[in-house]
Specification:
Elements (H helix, E strand, L loop, with lengths): L9 H7 L8 E5 L3 H10 L3 E2 L12 E7 L2 E7 L13 H15 L3 E10 L10 E9 L9 H6 L2 E2 L4 H7 L2 E7 L7 H9 L4 E3 L2 H11 L3 E10 L6 H27 L8
Parallel strand pairs: 1-4, 1-5, 5-10, 6-8, 8-9
Antiparallel strand pairs: 2-3, 3-4, 5-9, 6-7, 6-10
Helix pairs in contact: 2-8, 3-7
Enzyme class: hydrolase
Keywords: Glycosidase, Hydrolase
Protein name: Mutanase
Length: 264
């Protein structure tokens, strides 16, 4: 893997980042190519020919300039054996760590689709900014380890962005399965989640360690507590909801352009 551009560590980079300094670099971490493609087209990004990531990794990077911002979109790519998107917490955490170390973004946007709960006010096509993220499929009843496994973290606060763009806000719960077991359901309820995904809390774990502000932008493809099978509803709505995610993400980037972290 290539080192940070001037050889400095991520920690030193963080010390130089101040809330008042204008944002110049935005990194999108996106799990699926279908979710990323509309944004790649919107920002007219170029796919990297010679990867900055370790040889043999399927990770994909798109980069370019949009307005005053350097934009990078990274995806974990396709599983080499099966050819499907490398979704889930392990690829997301590895990719996020490597991307921060290499690209040194001022802010990260973890954008993607998610399941939503109608009991919490979610509908198909809604786009939420997560206020908090947590895991629902890591369980350990031992003292303190139970809290560690849930791993609740507050997302970077963006009150001005949320107000200006009139975005919905809710809590995000993360697990490694598309379906929902009874144990997972109990965890999601305990997390008071409005939306559920397969990457967010893993991204948050890494960005919290590296002290990179992170926005979680999640668009609802399926209603988990609805009457339709989740896989069927997810596939049915994926393309349409990805377009809604694209519109919301573009609005977010337009709002960030020319601003500092403290303006968000």
């Amino acid at each position: 893997m290539a080192p940070p551009h001037d050889g400095k560590t991520a920690a030193v980079f963080e010390e130089e980042s101040t809330p008042e300094r204008r944002i110049s670099s935005v990194l999108f971490v996106i799990a699926m190519q279908t979710e990323a493609s509309p944004l790649v087209d919107k920002f007219r990004l170029i796919e990297e020919a010679e990867s900055v990531f370790p040889e043999g990794f399927p990770w994909v990077r798109y980069y370019g300039k949009y307005k005053d911002l350097n934009i990078n979109i990274v995806c974990p790519g396709k599983d080499k054996a099966l050819g499907v998107d490398s979704v889930g917490t392990v690829p997301a955490s590895l990719l996020t760590y490597a991307s921060v170390q290499t690209l040194r973004p001022d802010i990260i946007i973890n954008a993607g689709t998610s399941g939503g709960f109608k009991a919490k006010g979610a509908s198909i096509g809604d786009v939420f900014v997560a206020s908090h993220v947590a895991f629902h499929d890591r369980r350990n009843p031992l003292p303190k380890r139970d809290i560690y496994c849930i791993g609740t973290r507050q997302a970077f606060s963006t009150p001005n962005l949320v107000k200006e763009l009139n975005l919905k806000v809710g809590k995000l719960s993360t697990g490694n399965s598309l379906d929902m077991s009874p144990q997972d359901a109990a965890g999601i309820i305990s997390n008071d989640a409005t939306v559920k995904d397969m990457e967010g809390a893993a991204v948050a774990y890494v960005t919290d360690l590296l002290k990179v502000p992170t926005i979680f932008l999640k668009a609802v493809t399926d209603i988990v507590d609805g009457d339709k099978p989740t896989p069927e509803e997810f596939l049915l709505n994926l393309a349409t909801v990805s377009a809604a995610l694209d519109r919301a993400a573009t609005q977010v980037v337009d709002f960030i352009n020319g601003k500092s972290l403290s303006d968000l």
